[in-house]
Chaperonin 10-like protein
Amino acid sequence: MAENFASKQAEAVLGHGDQDRATHTDISNPDREGGRYADESGEKMKALAWMGKNDVRVVETSKPKIVDDHDAIVKVTGTTVCGSDVHLMHGVILQIEKGDILGHEFCGVVEAVGPAVKNLKPGERVVNSFVVSCGECKYCKQKLTTACEKTNASRLHEQLYGSRMGGIFGYSHFTGGYAGGQAEYVRVPLADNNLMKLPHSIPDEKGLYLADVLPTSYHSVSYTGVNKDDTVAIWGLGPIGMMACFWAFLKGAKRVIGIDNNWRTDYAKSKIDRLETINYTTLGEGETVPRKIHEMVPGGVDVSIDATGGEYAKGFMHKLELKIGAEQDTSEMINECLMSTRKFGTVGIIGDYVGFTNHFNVGSLMERGIKLIGCGQSPVHKYWQELLEMVEHGTVDPTIMLTHRFQLDDIAKAYHLQEKRESGLVKCFVETRFSPRRTEGTPELTRL
Ligand SMILES: NC(=O)c1ccc[n+]([C@@H]2O[C@H](COP(=O)([O-])OP(=O)(O)OC[C@H]3O[C@@H](n4cnc5c(N)ncnc54)[C@H](O)[C@@H]3O)[C@@H](O)[C@H]2O)c1
Ligand SMILES: [Zn+2]
Ligand SMILES: [Zn+2]
């Protein structure tokens, strides 16, 4: 949090670099700047806002208006909570501000479009990409849309990482300051690029996950190059890790091992045939995850993927170092990945890491010729169409990770369940007052 405060100071000094933006950034709530971005109708809506460290709340705010000609307003019929939202709640993501509306995954119905929107009409069902892409910069042209150069004005991003990445809905001013979709309405900038139409055959309870979980988990195995007959180990069996296990098998992996520290190992195994798991809390004295993996796959696995996140320190030293700000991320899971991978194998990091880490086993990486791949924020657009078709044809059923249905009114409590990984929650679907009736076969509503 001290870092978050410092990041605001730094941005003030560096200046906000939004000269070359393709859209208005940093409209994280329609009521910002005295209601400047509120719809003229005066209509109010409910939305989940960040109010301080560990404090997210459903608040009443104004319905957003069209700000740029390329905008659309979407009436939200489904949203969810992501593992990344928990990092935001904890305040570990820089440049989050009180009142920012969160949520980067949503589906709904187009309510209104600006005059420059070509491919969308009011009434059409859509899902967003969590990325805000301009569609025209050199990265967007290659569909590496999270690297967009025109949708994020954070100079701090540039200073810390070397260059700026693109915008993300509902994910702090570090990634553009866009209001998110854990709300009844949301403004979608550059709507032709950032919304995909959903066919009738795909209900909200499946289509919603095209916003993030499906493209992110798919990207993690594609980009690390999981191949036929590979052995693969995946750390973290949240929605991202669990679906990455699914995709690894689809790519032809012969063995996939999922690692976690709780009941999610059993849950994932019950949904994915042939998955092997390690719940490391059950390991004996002196046993470690890498040792266990070498026992299961002598020599180590071909590919390891870290789908946990840098804030989840395991040992005392890293817990302390994180707490006092001596590092921003633990290196423990990445070190485990390195040591569990065969010589000249590959490690991919898809879980979120934000800054510097200590005690990184660079020796294992260098000496054993491991390729370490940062998977980046997933370039959703690269995979969108292919994944839509896979959902439509039943090649993948995203509801294997869907365990709960909540109401928007209860979403703050859902954050805390997600944080503690309690009550059998893997992934939720959050309905709003605009949602159609629940699709048969998906979880019934739970009130919290
Ligand atoms: N790169 C991207 O584009 C992108 C997109 C979405 C999410 N993410 C990130 O991916 C990660 C996973 O997302 P999610 O929604 O599945 O989150 P999640 O919090 O539901 O899942 C993380 C899992 O990791 C497990 N875990 C924690 N420490 C572990 C350890 N030492 N070893 C093994 N498992 C451990 C947790 O028990 C949990 O089940 C998060 O960090 C999230 O922010 C990245
Ligand atoms: Zn997400
Ligand atoms: Zn771009």
The pocket of zinc ion (ligand 2) is lined by residues 82, 84, 104-105, 130, 212 (CB under 6 Å). The two ends are 29 Å apart (CA to CA).
